[in-house]
Amino acid sequence: MDTSSLNPAFFNEGRISQISFQIGIGFCCGLSLIAAATRIVLQIRVRFRLELDDYFLIFACICLLASTVLAYVRVEALYFVEKVGLNPEFLLYAIKSHADIVGEINDYTKFYFAITPLLWTSIFAVKFAYLVFFRQLVDRVKPLVTYWKIILGITTVSCPICISSTFFSCVKWGLEAVVCIQPRYFRRSLGVAILAIVLDIGIDMMIVSLPVCLLWNARMKRGQKIQIGIFLSLNLFMAMTAGVRVSGLNHDGHIDEVWLNLWEIVEASVAICMISLTSFRSIFIASTKSQAAKERAKQPWYSSTLENVRIRKKQRSEDQEEMLDMPTMPAKTS
User: Fold this and answer.
1) pLDDT tens digit string along 42-76?
2) Angle at alpha carbon of residue 277, lines to 276 and 280, rounded to 5°
3) CB-neighbour burial class of residue 242 (10 A; exposed 0-12, middle 13-18, buried 19+)
4) In degrees rounded to 5, what are phi and psi of residue 250?
């Protein structure tokens, strides 16, 4: 929509300027796509196949990219409605300036009801990718398998709640949509947004607890536990980003939509980067073992038969630990 008749000063008010918003979401989206592409390429080169968590990652990237493109296309509509919320007199100014107010608000409404579900879908796709990744690690520990199933159930139930949270606060079109940013709808919108983010953070913390429980009884040095734990707990950054998002929702008595959309994109980008980094360790370990196997294949035919049998047994055991190079867990005692 053409907003050239409006005072440009209105578009530079608020905590985040339009240019900063565009630069921020572009940088975050680009960085996350590079991280994901690197992971996928390494996965194909080292393992020669994609796993289920890789497909969740690809789906998350598609949703994030679509959201970022949509944010660029509809950024003026977003800032138009944001300034109406910050400056009620701006609506009267826009009417006197013969701006296409209905068109701007309709553009914003379409943007709002599209971008938020897309970003939540991207965030939860990464959570499911983490769960798929950790499922292979806890497979031999029955209590953790049960705990994993509980987390999976909570995540599955929370996913549609967060994705559809946009429609719980205020669903109106045209000029009626202006009331959604007015104070009387503030508490409902704030409550719905906080509920969704609390679910988001809670699930992140439960997912982080999986590797913590796994490492607690692992037979390894403390330093090695810390190193592996750092790699496995990178999704804590998702919870931190969600915390920043909820901390800035309330701005002068209304929901700061610019802040909310910016940090939703940042969280989805951080989530993609973290799941990509988490898998790098296992990929490099697999690459090292693959190279070692090639070196063993070059051994002469007269090598000791017993030695070859021992190597094959060891390799089978290592393959089970391949994801993280984890030592054998203590056997369960009756």
Assistant:
1) 888 887 888 898 999 999 999 999 999 999 988 88
2) 95
3) buried
4) -85, 115
SS3 percent helix, strand, coil of the chain, rounded to 5, is 80, 0, 20
Of 317, 85, 301, the residue nearest 182 (C-alpha): 85
**How far are the Cα atoms of 280, 283, 295, 319 from residue 286, in angstroms, in the given order?**
10, 5, 14, 9
Residue 175: count other Cβ atoms within 10 Å of its Cβ: 12
Using CA atoms, how far residue 51 sits from 135, 190, 286, in Å, is 12, 38, 14
Q: Check if the beta carbon of residue 239 is closer than 8 Å to that of residue 245.
A: no
Beta strands in the chain (DSSP E): 250-251, 254-255
Backbone angles phi, psi at 251, to 5 degrees: -135, 105
pLDDT at 147: 92
Pairwise CA distance, residues 193 & 166, whole Å: 8
Of 175 and 209, the structure prediction assigns the larger pLDDT to 209
